Amino acid sequence: MNKLRRLIGISVSLILFTGCAGLGSVKKTNDLIPGMDIREVKRIMGEPSQTQFIANKFVLKYNLHQYFKGWVPYYLAFDRDTLKLETWYADEAEYYRDQQLWIEAMPKQVNVNETVQGTVHHEVSGTINHNVSGTINVR
């Protein structure tokens, strides 16, 4: 269990340090201006994770990091003919759906207050200290 906690701690630290480097940071959207052409936008934002046509718009999708939140999907919409930037937005609903999927994929917690059936035989000499809420019956 300690190895798992240590691995999770290291992973979180690496993710935070990577986010601090500005890669995929939501701060990049501060440099966007409506009317920019697609090349200028890609120079600022990098390559998108997806491209698609939606309702006569050419749309680029980015997953951008927001501090204390994580990776949020951002959509940048361009005029289909001129490829000039018209608008951009964070899709908060998609973010929360993705978060819910992660929560549902997590293993369920074990109830430590459950009654355990069976017999455990141990010979004990000395003192037993347990940090357990509830009742322990030793016979």
Write the layout of secondary structure elements.
Elements (H helix, E strand, L loop, with lengths): L1 H19 L17 H8 L4 E5 L2 E10 L3 E10 L5 E6 L1 H14 L34
Protein model, in words:
The chain has 139 residues and is an alpha+beta fold. It has a domain at 24-105: Beta-lactamase Inhibitory Protein, Chain:B, domain 1. The protein is built from three helices and four strands, in the order H-H-E-E-E-E-H. The chain has helices spanning 2-20, 38-45, 92-105, and strands at 50-54, 57-66, 70-79, 85-90. It has a four-stranded antiparallel sheet with strand order 1-2-3-4. Strand 3 (70-79) and strand 4 form a beta hairpin. It is elongated and about 80 Å long. The two termini are 29 Å apart. Residues 18-22 have low confidence and may be disordered.
Which strand-content bin applies to the residues?
15-25%
Low-pLDDT runs of 5+ residues are: 18-22
Q: How much helix, percentage-wise, in residues?
A: 25-40%
What characterizes the major β-sheet?
A: 4 strands, antiparallel
N-end to C-end Cα span = 29 Å
Extended strand count: 4
Average pLDDT number: 80
| Helix/strand/pairing category | alpha+beta
CATH topology of the domain at 24-105: Beta-lactamase Inhibitory Protein, Chain:B, domain 1
Q: Can you describe this structure in just a few lines?
A:
Helices cover 29% and strands 22% of the residues. The chain is of the alpha+beta class.
Keywords:
alpha+beta; Beta-lactamase Inhibitory Protein, Chain:B, domain 1; 3 helices; 139 residues
